[in-house]
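Ligand-bound model needed. pyridoxal-5'-phosphate.
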Amino acid sequence: MKEQNHYLKDSRLIETHYGEEYEHYYNAIVPPVFLNSLNVFPTIDDYYDSDKTDRHVYCYGRVQNPTVRILEDKIAALEHGEGAFVFSSGMAAATTAVMAVCHTGSHIVCVRNVYGPLKTFLTQHCTEQFQMQVTFVKGDRLEEFEEAITDDTDLVVLESPSSIMMTLQDIRGVAAIAGAHRARIYIDNTYCTPIFQNPLDLGADMVMHTMSKYIGGHSDIIGGVLVAKDKELLAKLSLMRELYGGILGPMEAWLGIRGIRTLEVRLRQHEKTALAVAAYLEKHPRVKKVYFPGLPSFPQYELMQKQQQGNCGLMSFELDGSVEQTKAFCQALRIFKIGVSWGGFESLVTMPFARASEEETAWLGGAQNLIRIHCGLEGEENLIADLEQAFAAL
Ligand SMILES: *Cc1c(COP(=O)(O)O)cnc(C)c1O
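Prediction:
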């Protein structure tokens, strides 16, 4: 279907239809949810050959499902990958990626600000059970990667921008260094979505998105995806998903397909709102620092412009006030609800380091009174007014 669209100037919006084969489901404009757990065959040989024949032959729902496949084809097209596999959560995708590439004794280079539970998986599970070694890097200087990556490094774990401190890594630069040592690059691209950054084009090997955030987009699914270009790697990921059994359910896949249809318009609106909110916060006398890659004052703004096409609704900032005052500020907000996660309609607020140790907080470049907000779709004037009344209550 992609081939038919070459005459279009901007095929991105059309890619939201990619992978849909109307003729296979009575020309319905919206693909159905295939809730079947298995498919049947006319002969025993057809059954045995099912995984070798064409892509429209399905056998068992833990391996593949038509609704799931439509979603995977779309995400692969949007990320410029050769293929994609969706999982029951972002963490299922992330851990499968690590186990597909690493083995006992593997060396991993990982950025400090990577998603916390993945760090826990690496440092507590992989090091203890599989004697892997993890070297953490801040990630803002290429020299640091050069020093950390060795010929024993199997995996480099990136997240750019990261989801609390919004730190970036030079993806192209890291890819050149990792490539020289035959190390694979995994990157969490959840912040940008495929709309604002395509790391496979910059040299990454595996892109992960948690679909629980913007791809789902309505705070109603948990899911994850891995996208890759390399066919050998895709075959490995496919096998690992089948064996670990972490495939996404068909209903969630269908909601993912629905989410993708509006992904770009939602993202552009989140970005517009976030830019207005970040500019407002930056000028506010009670705000010490704003962490948002879309602000020209952001230390890595130039790198952001080089590798991203935009920024989402997520940012952090520091108040000039104690942890207790900051808690009161968060609790005074009415539109921004207190809660983890992000990427849906709703504006949200958290204090990611309020209970972290000072040591851990400093290691990540944060502060205990740091506030992270997700700018939702309630309208920028409303969000700024909400912040304004919370500042007034300080
Ligand atoms: C939420 C999140 C994850 C984990 O995704 P789940 O679907 O909750 O497993 C990974 N990375 C980032 C950046 C996230 O925000």
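Residues 87 and 247 are 4 Å apart (CA to CA).
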